[in-house]
């Protein structure tokens, strides 16, 4: 079994063709899911994995929920306001171990000029060689945020109910593969 203690120290770049940054949010009686197609990120791993760092920048105009009209609305000032705030960023502030392959990565998430803490539950999926002579690492991370905490509070009341059309809780899911710089 591979353990995170075996991670090669160094700088790793997200492989954007093998990484997905996704989300889900409640909409009426179901959930809407989406991804961001354009992003970049770096992981810097240390001998002591808990001294490692992560930084990611996401192009908010690259949102894709599978519905072009909804995506255009999400880019508008009702939600992300990409004209004024074209990207969101995450910069880690700490890593703690939760076993051989599980970690908690804490950091600062900035959306629309508002920075809030984010805690990601991270599972280390392994490290190994690729067919091109490189070294790769894989992780899966999940976390939750309140969209209202970032000033994203657009909503539509549902007639005859004590709720709104769009939920406040956003579930984030990141499936990442990164390549060690040579």
TrEMBL record:
What region holds the Lipid/polyisoprenoid-binding YceI-like domain?
11-179
InterPro entries associated with the record: Lipid/polyisoprenoid-bd_YceI, TTHA0802/YceI-like_sf
Which superkingdom does the taxonomy of this entry point to? Answer: Bacteria
Under Gene3D superfamilies, the record lists:
Lipid/polyisoprenoid-binding, YceI-like
Query: What family, per the record?
Result: Belongs to the UPF0312 family.
- The name under which this protein is listed is YceI family protein
């Amino acid at each position: 079994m591979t353990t995170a203690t075996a991670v090669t120290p160094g700088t790793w770049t997200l492989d954007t063709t093998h990484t997905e940054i996704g989300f889900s949010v409640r909409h009426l009686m179901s959930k809407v899911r989406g991804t961001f197609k354009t992003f970049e990120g770096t992981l810097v791993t240390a001998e002591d994995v808990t001294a490692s760092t992560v930084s990611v920048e996401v192009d908010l105009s690259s949102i894709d929920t599978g519905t072009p009209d909804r995506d255009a609305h999400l880019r508008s000032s009702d939600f992300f306001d990409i004209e004024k705030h074209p990207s969101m960023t995450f910069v880690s502030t700490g890593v703690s171990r939760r076993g051989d392959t599980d970690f908690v990565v804490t950091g600062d998430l900035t959306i629309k000029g508002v920075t809030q803490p984010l805690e990601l539950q991270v599972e280390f999926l392994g490290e190994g060689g690729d067919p091109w002579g490189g070294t790769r690492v894989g992780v899966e991370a999940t976390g939750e945020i309140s969209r209202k905490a970032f000033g994203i509070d657009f909503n539509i009341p549902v007639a005859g109910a004590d709720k709104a059309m769009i939920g406040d809780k956003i579930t984030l899911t990141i499936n990442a593969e990164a390549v060690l710089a040579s």
